[in-house]
Amino acid sequence: MERSDLKKIDLPDVPGVYLFKKGRSVLYIGKATSLRDRVKSYFDDDLIATRGPRIVDMVTQADRVSFETTPTVLEALVREAVLIKKYLPPANTEGKDDSSFLYACITREDIPRVLVMRGKDIDRKKRIGNGFRLSEVYGPFPSGPQLREALRLIRRIFPFYDTPKPLAHGGKHQAAKIEFNKQIGQYPSAYDSRAYARTIRYVKLFLSGRGKMLRKTLLRDMARAAREERFEEAAERRRELYALEHIQDVSLIKEEGSRQKAVGRIEAYDTAHLSGTNAVGVMVVVEDGAPVKREYRTFNIRGFKKNDDIGSLREVLSRRLAHAEWPYPAAVVVDGARPQKRAAEEALRAAGLTIPVVAVVKDERHRPREVIGARPAGISEADAVLANAEAHRFSLARHRRARSRGMR
Questions:
Q1: In a 3-state reduction of DSSP, which class is residue 290?
Q2: Secondary structure of residue 113 in the 3-state scheme
């Protein structure tokens, strides 16, 4: 498609989903706060820099765009997941492991819970069935942070349980249920099984993309409650209808061109080993000049070859990039020189990402001698050196721990 082809499409300035197509084949599905602005962005001159070659190829192949409007951005996100599951468009799914996608799941229990699960965990649960079974699975959702934000918003309208462990009818779990009730202000005292079953029914309608049916159901339930003089219940249905129409959900969809890059977030990587043994790789996160230790990650390197630091870096990055639910950084910092920088850039490109890479070159005493690429990446050399030093410290600490375990 060319930019001039957009003149044939009357794209509205409202939320919705859009589908790039070639003939009857669906190549890519996305969501937007504004269909008009979002689809136009695919014809910007800097598309390859912001979205990568895979999306550029997709736009070149496409011969038309179709779209569906939605009342809210929240419903656009859910509708996108429904359509991706239906069409499996290659530009959304190629090069991605299905088991790494996230899904919204509802458990098959006396007191159902709504959980976020990875595809591989769903498959394992089907095989083993340990603890509980699933009644419904919705997805895949391309963005883990957006799915969690969506469920947080839905939970404000239709309060549901999302506890890690199943809830029993009494005993030690009763206190947790009562505490949940206090937090949401929905059930002030006792657990109401009929009311909660109704809530789960509403959640299922919403997550399956049947927003219109949900509204009709709420209107019907509101009218019935009013006829039967259950006025508090009728008022609750009215509140839920109003919340569906007016929920502030713009935060759900950041510009997709940034692929959920968190402004100010720097990820630094380092590896450590002793003569090719007990090799570990680490990821550390620095935001606004401060380490965010709760987001540090460790990777036991599996395909490590003796002194193959570049191979280890590629492995660590590829495994990190499989976690689409983690926000992407504004910049990546690696320990080494231009070969390490190129290896990281190749790993990012292979994942369809265009994230700048900075390399910190060390002298013979392992002190920073040169910083490559900080200015083009939009970060200071000081922040790059800080992130690199923290990654080196963390990798050594993890390697010492792995080595001590191996000596026991």
A1: strand
A2: strand
Q: Encode 373-402: b = buried (16+ Cβ within 10 Å), e = exposed.
A: bbeebebebebbbbbbbbbbebbeebbeeb
For the domain covering 3-93, report its CATH number: 3.40.1440.10
In angstroms, the CA 130 to CA 147 distance is 25
C-beta separation of 23 from 29 below 8 A: no
Q: Give pLDDT tens digits for 82-115.
A: 999 999 999 887 656 566 688 999 999 888 999 9
- Assign domain 259-407 to its CATH architecture: 2-Layer Sandwich (3.30)
What six digits make up the tokens of 348?
A: 């990012």
For residue 160, the 8-state DSSP code is -
Q: Are 67 and 35 in contact (CB under 8 A)?
A: yes
pTM exceeding the 0.70 threshold for the entire prediction: no
pLDDT at 248: 53
Distance CA 269, CA 118 (A): 25
Domain definitions of the chain by residue range: 3-93, 98-252, 259-407
Query: What is the pLDDT averaged over residues 253-257?
Result: 47
Residues 165-202: pLDDT tens digits?
A: 787 655 455 555 545 554 544 443 456 788 999 999 99
Antiparallel, parallel or unpaired: β 261-274 and 277-287: antiparallel
